[in-house]
């Protein structure tokens, strides 16, 4: 397993890769250790820098897909929410063929997303459009959404 720290507009991020796949992104990371050469981490760092600069709207990275079948369905649907747009938890549930009552389970799957930013769980909001919980904190969610669509929040 390889790790790398990067600085970003939402604070320090620690990227993890294993077996040629990006496996996890952690918030509130502090710089540690020496920089390790890893092609997946190089690509992830490059694409995240372009995203934060407003030059990239989608990611093309080899991602680990570790989770329950339901989580994987939710995370797959998150990729379908276009850059600069949002969807409610109930809307994501409906898109997956579930009743809106499943929105809490969608929220739980969102919270378990190991690859925030790259798998855009920040684009999921409350039914009234409000910013609801985010593993990285609501202010990070607001920053990411404002980056994608200035004036949205």
UniProtKB/TrEMBL annotation:
PROSITE patterns: MGMT (PS00374). The keyword rRNA-binding does not apply. It is found in: Cytoplasm. One of its GO terms (cellular component) is cytoplasm. Its main location: cytoplasm. InterPro entries: MethylDNA_cys_MeTrfase_AS, MethylDNA_cys_MeTrfase_DNA-bd, MethylDNA_cys_MeTrfase_DNAb, MethylG_MeTrfase_N, MGMT, MGMT_N_sf, WH-like_DNA-bd_sf. Its EC number is 2.1.1.63. Keywords: Cytoplasm, DNA damage, DNA repair, Methyltransferase, Transferase. GO terms for molecular function: methylated-DNA-[protein]-cysteine S-methyltransferase activity. Coiled coil: none annotated. The active site is at residue 121. It holds the Pfam family Methyltransf_1N. It is an enzyme of class 2 (transferase). Residues 69-149 form the Methylated-DNA-[protein]-cysteine S-methyltransferase DNA binding domain. It catalyses: a 4-O-methyl-thymidine in DNA + L-cysteinyl-[protein] = a thymidine in DNA + S-methyl-L-cysteinyl-[protein]; a 6-O-methyl-2'-deoxyguanosine in DNA + L-cysteinyl-[protein] = S-methyl-L-cysteinyl-[protein] + a 2'-deoxyguanosine in DNA. Residues 5-64 form the Methylguanine DNA methyltransferase ribonuclease-like domain. GO terms for biological process: DNA alkylation repair; methylation. Belongs to the MGMT family. Involved in the cellular defense against the biological effects of O6-methylguanine (O6-MeG) and O4-methylthymine (O4-MeT) in DNA. Repairs the methylated nucleobase in DNA by stoichiometrically transferring the methyl group to a cysteine residue in the enzyme. This is a suicide reaction: the enzyme is irreversibly inactivated. This enzyme catalyzes only one turnover and therefore is not strictly catalytic. According to one definition, an enzyme is a biocatalyst that acts repeatedly and over many reaction cycles. This is Methylated-DNA--protein-cysteine methyltransferase. It comes from Aeromicrobium erythreum.
């Amino acid at each position: 397993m390889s790790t790398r720290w990067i600085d970003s507009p939402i604070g320090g991020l620690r990227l993890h890769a294993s077996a040629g796949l990006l496996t996890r992104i952690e918030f509130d990371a502090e710089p540690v250790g020496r920089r390790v050469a890893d092609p997946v981490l190089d690509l992830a760092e490059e694409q995240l820098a372009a995203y934060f600069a407003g030059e990239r709207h989608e990611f093309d990275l080899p991602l680990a897909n570790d989770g329950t079948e339901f989580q994987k369905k939710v995370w797959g649907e998150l990729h379908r929410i276009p850059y600069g747009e949002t969807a409610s938890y109930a809307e994501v549930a409906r898109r997956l063929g579930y009743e809106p009552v499943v929105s809490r389970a969608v929220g739980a799957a969102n919270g378990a997303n190991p690859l925030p930013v790259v798998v855009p769980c920040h684009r999921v909001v409350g039914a009234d459009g409000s910013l609801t919980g985010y593993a990285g904190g609501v202010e990070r969610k607001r920053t990411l959404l404002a980056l994608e669509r200035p004036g949205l929040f």
